[in-house]
């Protein structure tokens, strides 16, 4: 059964049989998997303006892989985006874990086609219990729970879970039931933790922040307290689920999990569930030599709930679980082993996501990123994500610094002024234009908007019912999800999902209705004599299913451009108005001052966090002096030996280093290509689908890096050693050897760090393949010199 499941998971990419064997618990058939993903991808392409995969070259092409993805910002969209990206970029099919309560109706049917593994969750099966509960002696016997009007003998069971109520913004506590003493008494596995739980179970006001009682002489709850409501969940046996995951991984398959549990719309990672660690450790306990790797995946969205938003799916360096933790798991110390693995998974996810303590801080960091980019050029999405992440790391480390506190307040005031004027940060620079140019630009864009509106109107009328239905239903679902959750802030994590699901169900019905109406009118009088009699009715149906979707798609594209133009009209109108233009001029001056402050602080604190700060800039320092040498080429300096310069010029890498040490060194040659994976480092070949790991954007003006094709300024080439003489060959060979020695030393240092840490696989370190490639280069140069 295990062999058949492994073959099914990778067929035909790993030459598996095409038929699912009936013994598989959760089978995956390749053609069904691909068909469902292709169908749903059409909707994803309509909903998202761009989905950019970053670091897909890190994903192992063979062998078992456990993908851990976060944050879980969309209920079902995350799964679709992750599965599609892995299939397109890495040729891997992945079975995702899905909540048992979601395996119903259309979602359940679709999840079965892609081999998803349903997982029962205790909180989904929890039901309110009779009566109320309290702690009769929270100090001397904190595991004894007493009820008032309860019937534990009928409602509770050993191994089940007792849940306390949740309060908005705070999760209710839960604990296992280990003994049923009577209808009104049970014993729990461990004492409840947290001040909220103690207050709920005792109603005492002497509980401090550490959940300790100040007055220890009083042992019971507050006199006359009637207890708190509660829920009980039965024991859920996950043995079959875990075994199915173990079998798939042991035999070379891929499994994906969102370790936070449910979806949410918070700005920080939620505590990770233990399931991801159990899956990794359990697999290795049964097959220690299977070669299991864990790959962290960052799901980075820009306004995930909005139509035509953008996303970056970032794959971090794969890592393995050390054998000592597997031994701990096998021989009894499971809690410690699971904790170690969870800590490392959390650190790896932090390296591929942007995590902030709250939404306000996220807005400040994003504003600082825009103000720091004084070049005015649009940054590629991966660079934006990486810059946000570095700023978040810097803020977390220096948030108590007085300079950061003052700067945060200034940035928040600047954001408040932008909201007051209802303009965006990049529109503040409109005031630089002369008054005649502002008027001309306003009239030109207004005319363009009117022209685009003519193209949008037909599709807007035809597709209007779908837009209305998706908005109403998605917001209703968001309110329902918000009411039943303690981790959601506004419930935006379910909006995108329901927009896609409603569109998938309602759009075909609407198109079919329009087609039937058109067929009836043609049948009745040839559409007022406009359609010849020889046109068959089936031809009308066929034409309708082509014309109506085409009109809708054209309206979407025209509307997308039109909305961008519409948003730009207000600041232009303010610049024309003399009274308002003064406010924008003041705002621009304030923006310039803020930009200088942010740049100065980053340049001051940056080297303390990143050892190669000046060399790994994501945004060029426009205030610094131009380096010597050709434009865009790093120049040699007294502090930079020639071997480092050669490595910078020759190493075609990028990405964040081992998350355990917090380093984020980037070694590309142009500002527009920093933090881009190895096969899309240079801006000219990065535009070509043949070389890029990202899909070609439909509108390169919105997402492309700076630069252009061959012969354009976007590909700055420095001065390289001439290879037209023996001296040139010898010089080049010497430089390569120097680079090899330096990279070997770096590799040894990283290996020693990894041995002291968790054994991370550094995606940027020199590999054996790279060493062989360098040795081959030296050998080739030697042969050419001898010739």
TrEMBL record:
Query: Spans of biased composition, class Basic and acidic residues?
Result: 735-745
Query: What are this entry's molecular-function GO terms?
Result: glycerol-3-phosphate O-acyltransferase activity; glycerone-phosphate O-acyltransferase activity
Q: Where is the Phospholipid/glycerol acyltransferase domain?
A: 66-302
Source species, domain of life: Eukaryota
Pfam families given in the database record: Acyltransferase
Composition bias of kind Polar residues appears in 658-673
Classification from the root reads: Eukaryota, Fungi, Dikarya, Ascomycota, Pezizomycotina
Keywords for this entry?
Answer: Membrane, Transmembrane, Transmembrane helix
Q: What parts of the sequence cross the membrane? A: 449-469, 500-523, 535-558
Task: Please give the residue ranges the record annotates as the region Disordered.
Answer: 620-714, 735-787
- Name this protein carries in UniProt: Phospholipid/glycerol acyltransferase domain-containing protein
Q: Which GO terms describe its biological process?
A: phospholipid biosynthetic process
């Amino acid at each position: 059964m295990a062999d058949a499941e492994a073959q099914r998971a990778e067929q035909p990419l790993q030459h598996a049989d095409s038929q699912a064997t009936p013994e598989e618990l959760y089978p995956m058939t390749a053609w069904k998997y691909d068909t469902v993903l292709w169908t749903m991808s059409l909707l994803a392409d309509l909903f998202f303006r761009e989905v950019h995969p970053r670091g897909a070259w890190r994903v192992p092409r063979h062998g078992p892989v456990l993908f851990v993805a976060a944050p879980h910002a969309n209920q079902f969209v995350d799964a679709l985006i992750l599965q599609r990206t892995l299939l397109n970029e890495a040729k891997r099919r992945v079975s995702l874990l899905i909540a048992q309560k979601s395996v119903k109706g259309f979602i359940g049917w679709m999840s079965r086609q892609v081999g998803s593994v349903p997982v029962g969750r205790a909180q989904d099966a929890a039901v309110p219990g009779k009566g109320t509960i309290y702690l009769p002696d929270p100090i001397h016997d904190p595991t004894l729970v007493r009820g008032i009007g309860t019937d534990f003998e009928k409602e509770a069971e050993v191994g089940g879970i007792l849940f306390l109520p949740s309060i908005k913004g705070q999760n209710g506590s839960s604990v296992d039931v280990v003994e049923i003493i009577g209808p009104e008494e049970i014993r729990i596995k461990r004492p409840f933790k947290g001040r909220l739980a103690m207050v709920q179970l005792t109603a005492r006001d002497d509980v401090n922040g550490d959940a300790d009682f100040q007055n220890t002489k009083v042992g019971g709850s507050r006199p006359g307290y009637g207890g708190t409501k509660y829920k009980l969940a039965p024991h859920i046996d996950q043995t079959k689920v875990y075994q199915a995951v173990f079998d798939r991984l042991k035999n070379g398959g891929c499994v994906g999990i969102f370790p936070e549990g449910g979806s949410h719309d918070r700005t920080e990672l939620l505590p990770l569930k233990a399931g991801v660690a159990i899956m990794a450790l359990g697999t290795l306990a049964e097959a220690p030599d299977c070669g299991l790797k864990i790959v962290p995946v960052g799901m980075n969205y820009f306004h995930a709930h909005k139509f035509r938003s953008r996303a970056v799916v970032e794959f971090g360096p794969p890592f393995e679980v050390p054998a000592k933790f597997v031994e701990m798991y096998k021989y009894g110390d499971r809690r410690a082993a699971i904790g170690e693995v969870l800590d490392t998974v959390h650190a790896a996810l932090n390296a591929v996501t942007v995590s902030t303590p709250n939404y306000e801080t996220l807005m400040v960091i994003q504003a600082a990123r825009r103000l720091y980019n004084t070049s005015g050029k649009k940054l590629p999405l991966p660079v934006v994500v990486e810059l946000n992440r570095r700023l978040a790391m810097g803020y977390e480390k220096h948030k108590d610094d007085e300079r950061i506190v003052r700067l945060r307040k200034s940035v928040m005031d600047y954001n408040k002024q932008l909201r007051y004027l209802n303009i965006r940060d990049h529109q503040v620079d409109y005031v630089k234009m002369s008054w005649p140019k502002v008027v001309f630009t306003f009239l030109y864009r207004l005319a363009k908007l009117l022209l685009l509106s003519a193209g949008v109107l037909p599709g807007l009328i035809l597709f209007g019912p779908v837009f209305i239905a998706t908005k109403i239903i998605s917001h209703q679902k968001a309110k329902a999800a918000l009411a039943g959750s303690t981790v959601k802030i506004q419930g935006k994590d379910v909006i995108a999902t329901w927009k896609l699901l409603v569109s998938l169900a309602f759009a075909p019905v609407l198109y079919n209705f329009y087609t039937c109406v058109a067929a009836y009118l043609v049948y009745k009088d040839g559409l007022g004599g406009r359609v010849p009699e020889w046109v068959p009715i089936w031809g009308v149906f066929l034409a309708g299913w082509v014309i109506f979707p085409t009109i809708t798609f054209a309206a979407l594209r025209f509307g997308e451009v039109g909305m961008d133009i519409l948003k730009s009209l207000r600041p232009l109108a303010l610049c024309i108005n003399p009274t308002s233009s003064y406010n924008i001029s003041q705002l621009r001056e304030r923006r310039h001052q803020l930009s200088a402050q942010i740049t100065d602080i980053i340049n001051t604190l940056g080297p303390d966090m990143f050892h190669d700060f000046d060399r790994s800039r994501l945004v060029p320092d426009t205030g610094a002096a131009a380096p010597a040498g050709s434009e865009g080429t790093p120049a040699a300096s007294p502090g930079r030996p020639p071997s480092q310069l050669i490595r910078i010029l020759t190493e075609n890498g990028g990405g964040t280093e081992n998350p355990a040490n917090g380093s984020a060194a980037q070694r590309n040659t142009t500002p527009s290509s920093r933090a881009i994976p190895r096969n899309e480092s240079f801006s000219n070949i990065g535009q070509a689908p043949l070389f890029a790991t990202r899909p070609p954007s439909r509108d390169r003006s919105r997402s492309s890096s700076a630069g252009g094709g061959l012969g354009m300024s976007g590909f700055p080439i420095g001065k390289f050693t001439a290879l037209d003489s023996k001296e040139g060959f010898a010089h080049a060979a010497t430089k390569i050897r120097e680079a090899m020695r330096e990279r070997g030393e770096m590799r040894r240092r990283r290996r020693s760090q990894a041995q002291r840490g968790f054994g991370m696989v550094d995606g940027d370190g020199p590999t054996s393949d790279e060493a062989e490639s360098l040795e081959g280069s030296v050998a080739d140069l030697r042969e050419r010199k001898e010739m």
